[in-house]
Amino acid sequence: MKIALVGYGKMGKVIERIAQERGHEIVLRKKSSDNFDGLEQADAAIEFSVPDAAVNNITECLNQNIPVVSGTTGWLEQYHNMAKLCEEKNGAFIYASNFSLGVNVFFELNLQLAKMMSKLKEYNVSMEEIHHTQKLDAPSGTAITLANDIINHSDYSSWSIGNPKENEIFIDAKREENVPGTHIIKYDSDVDSVEIKHTAHSRDGFALGAVVAAEWLANKRGVYSMKDVLNLT
Ligand SMILES: NC(=O)C1=CN([C@@H]2O[C@H](COP(=O)(O)OP(=O)(O)OC[C@H]3O[C@@H](n4cnc5c(N)ncnc54)[C@H](O)[C@@H]3O)[C@@H](O)[C@H]2O)C=CC1
Ligand SMILES: O=C(O)C1=N[C@H](C(=O)O)C[C@H](O)C1
């Protein structure tokens, strides 16, 4: 398969290696707002760039009718516009805040735990996410997905990285050198606490998930998620 890398930073480079190991050819390595030359040859585009560029990049892929997998975080207020554009163009689009298999299992664990804990009013939930110091957005896209899943199954109504009000989930967004991505969800009561944690050891899991998603999406039409790709539940 021919793959366009739209965004060629830390993730783009790991995706390139894993895509080539799986027999794919890279036809575009786009690093900035310069042109999209090569995109037209691609069977799928994999978009890991910066929050300010994601909407323009996804729009261009959909306008050129190239299936697009996006992992860029920090632009999600525009997600519905991108999904709508995809439907209008009869295109193919997947966004995931986290493409790793382990985190997608963790998303399901979080949902189950949130449903159980919603019945136990003595526990308060909080989250911690730790990432490398170059990360532009906070909290992480993964933390937002986890928080929204808790909100949809509990009395919590929003999240906050500052001083949480009642009914807000506190997300402690920490930045430390060379951390690929760690997420912890903690339910605390006076007598005990229950925690679940996912630790990425490298970026390989994110990159493999994105390549598998591109392989899955290449001949499809529609708006999908990693739930569709992995079929975990
Ligand atoms: N969904 C997931 O599984 C994961 C998502 N991410 C997200 O992916 C994004 C990229 O992460 P990294 O590669 O670590 O960041 P990075 O900063 O290493 O790379 C981003 C690259 O995008 C380039 N860029 C800037 N403007 C561009 C434009 N208009 N078009 C194309 N490229 C442009 C920059 O030059 C840079 O090389 C971030 O938003 C991050 O949060 C990261 C890891 C996993
Ligand atoms: O910027 C990163 O590095 C990561 N970003 C994603 C996020 O914001 O959740 C996924 C992963 O945790 C790494």
TrEMBL record:
Location(s) in or outside the cell? Cytoplasm
Membership in a protein family: Belongs to the DapB family.
EC number in record: 1.17.1.8
Keyword Endoplasmic reticulum in the entry? The reply is: no
Q: Does the keyword Amino-acid biosynthesis apply?
A: yes
Binding of NADP(+): at which residues?
Answer: K30
Q: Keywords assigned by UniProt?
A: Amino-acid biosynthesis, Cytoplasm, Diaminopimelate biosynthesis, Lysine biosynthesis, NAD, NADP, Oxidoreductase
Question: Predominant location of this chain?
Answer: cytoplasm
Function of the protein: Catalyzes the conversion of 4-hydroxy-tetrahydrodipicolinate (HTPA) to tetrahydrodipicolinate.
Task: Please give the name of this protein.
Answer: 4-hydroxy-tetrahydrodipicolinate reductase
Self-association state and partner proteins as the record states: Homotetramer.
Which segments constitute the Dihydrodipicolinate reductase C-terminal domain? 102-230
**Residues at which (S)-2,3,4,5-tetrahydrodipicolinate binds:** H132, G141, T142
The pathway is: Amino-acid biosynthesis; L-lysine biosynthesis via DAP pathway; (S)-tetrahydrodipicolinate from L-aspartate: step 4/4
Catalytic reaction(s) noted:
(S)-2,3,4,5-tetrahydrodipicolinate + NAD(+) + H2O = (2S,4S)-4-hydroxy-2,3,4,5-tetrahydrodipicolinate + NADH + H(+); (S)-2,3,4,5-tetrahydrodipicolinate + NADP(+) + H2O = (2S,4S)-4-hydroxy-2,3,4,5-tetrahydrodipicolinate + NADPH + H(+)
Domain (Dihydrodipicolinate reductase N-terminal) spans 1-99
Query: Record's InterPro entries?
Result: DapB_C, DapB_N, DHDPR_bac, NAD(P)-bd_dom_sf
**Residues the record lists as binding NAD(+):** G71, T72, T73, A96, S97, N98, F99
Q: Which positions are catalytic residues?
A: H131, K135
